[in-house]
């Protein structure tokens, strides 16, 4: 398994409603990974329309901040 | 002049009447007769300038087609401004339209909005969320995501960033310029891939272009390319080409009146069903005159 690219989480788009991070794929669709996958230590974002994958570069604290904010809101 | 399209057809961006991918060239629908001046495309939309009028197809979810709605065939883009369009380029989800008056417009959810005015416009280049505007007075302007110019904020109006520039190209997180002195320079801010920074020693360069993470120029009648090559997107040989165009991760060229493609082919944009092409692959279209490569999508203009 090889990655198409490595992408910093700050460069991805976060959708707080769906709790999902996305980044454009060269096919036109978007690589995606959920906040909860990242919280579990998963770092591979996949594209639903092709076989390419990216490796997400992130600090666990960055994700913990977001999951804690949701826990507080609930 | 006819236009053929093949490859990834997400949201109907090929303009061939469906949303199905095609690995063979198909005549696009909805374009009037006339001289095609420019083709530009984003992630899921395509625009064509014919006789000064803008046509588009694909996704309009962000207003990138001026609010005309998603469409699988080409339709006239509502650009109701009494000014002549001279150049168009596309970010991932937007469209930058430049007019004869020097005014620059960006597509938004509520129609085209003027974001600045420069002296007369020579060319624009866009990638993802940043846009570059080059004037005939060799001044370079920027609009959009500020990371490529070392700013953390979004620029909401056109800002001058350099002078004495004669050509430009936009990559995913960088841009490239050729100065009046003939020197090619890579932008220094943001996340520029190290493979792109590594500029080979080349003589006189022309026909500057960039994919997401690679740069292409013509030098001594050959294409010289450098950058990331994970999907074989760099130009594969020493052939001299009549014209070429590079998309997100593939390229198209014309050699001896034949059209060829190279690079990533998962969506059939190189004209066959192999995932990756080995070298140049022939796309059979008779009398190709110009090529344009987009996001895994290929467009060929023919007589
Ligand atoms: Zn994809």
UniProtKB/TrEMBL annotation, chain A:
A GO molecular-function annotation: metal ion binding
UniProt protein name: Diphthamide biosynthesis protein 3
InterPro entries per UniProt: DPH3/4-like, DPH_MB_dom, DPH_MB_sf
Domain of life: Eukaryota
Record-annotated DPH-type MB domain positions: 3-59
Pfam families, per the entry: Zn_ribbon_CSL
Catalytic activity, reaction form: [3Fe-4S](1+)-[protein] + Fe(2+)-[Dph3] = [3Fe-4S](0)-[protein] + Fe(3+)-[Dph3]; 2 [3Fe-4S](0)-[protein] + 2 Fe(2+)-[Dph3] + NADH = 2 [4Fe-4S](1+)-[protein] + 2 [Dph3] + NAD(+) + H(+)
Keyword annotations of the record: Iron, Metal-binding
Pathway: Protein modification; peptidyl-diphthamide biosynthesis
GO biological processes: protein histidyl modification to diphthamide
Gene3D superfamilies reported for this sequence: DPH Zinc finger
TrEMBL record, chain B:
Source domain of life: Eukaryota
Ranges: RCC repeats: 1-52
A Pfam family matched in the record: RCC1
Keywords: Repeat
Repeat recorded as keyword: yes
SUPFAM superfamilies given in the database record: RCC1/BLIP-II (SSF50985)
An annotated GO cellular component: cytoplasm
PROSITE patterns assigned to the protein according to its UniProt record, in alphabetical order: RCC1_2, RCC1_3
Protein name per its UniProtKB record: Uncharacterized protein
Protein source organism: Tortispora caseinolytica NRRL Y-17796
């Amino acid at each position: 398994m090889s990655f198409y690219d490595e992408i910093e989480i700050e460069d991805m788009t976060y959708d707080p409603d769906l709790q999902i991070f996305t980044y454009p794929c060269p096919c036109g669709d978007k690589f995606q990974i959920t906040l909860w996958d990242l919280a579990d230590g998963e770092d591979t974002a996949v594209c639903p329309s092709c076989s390419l994958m990216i490796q997400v570069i992130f600090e666990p604290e960055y994700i913990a901040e977001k999951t804690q904010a949701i826990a507080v809101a609930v | 002049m006819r236009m053929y399209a093949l490859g990834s057809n997400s949201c109907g961006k090929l303009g061939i009447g469906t949303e199905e991918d095609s690995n063979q060239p198909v005549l696009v629908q909805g374009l009037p007769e006339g001289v095609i001046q420019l083709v530009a495309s984003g992630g899921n939309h395509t625009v064509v300038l014919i006789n000064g009028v803008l046509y588009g197809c694909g996704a309009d979810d962000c207003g990138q087609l001026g609010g005309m709605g998603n469409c699988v065939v080409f339709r006239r883009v509502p650009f109701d401004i009494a000014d002549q369009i001279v150049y168009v380029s596309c970010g991932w989800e937007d469209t930058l339209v430049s007019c004869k008056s020097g005014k620059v417009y960006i597509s938004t959810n509520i129609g085209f909005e003027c974001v600045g005015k420069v002296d007369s416009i020579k060319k624009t280049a866009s990638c993802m969320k940043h846009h570059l505007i080059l004037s005939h007075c060799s001044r370079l302007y920027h609009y959009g995501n500020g990371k490529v110019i070392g700013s953390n904020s979004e620029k909401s109006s056109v800002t001058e960033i350099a002078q004495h520039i004669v050509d430009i190209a936009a990559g995913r997180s960088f841009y490239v310029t050729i100065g009046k002195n003939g020197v090619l320079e890579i932008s220094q801010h943001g996340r520029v891939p190290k493979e792109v920074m590594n500029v080979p020693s080349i003589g006189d360069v022309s026909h500057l272009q960039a994919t997401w993470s690679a740069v292409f120029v013509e030098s001594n009648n050959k294409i010289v390319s450098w950058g990331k090559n994970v999907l074989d997107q760099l130009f594969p040989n020493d052939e001299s080409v009549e014209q070429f165009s590079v998309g997100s991760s593939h390229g198209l060229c014309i050699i001896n009146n034949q059209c060829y493609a190279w690079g990533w082919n998962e969506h059939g944009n190189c004209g066959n069903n192999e995932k990756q092409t080995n070298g140049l692959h022939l796309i059979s279209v008779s009398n190709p005159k110009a090529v344009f490569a987009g996001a895994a999508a290929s467009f060929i203009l023919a007589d």
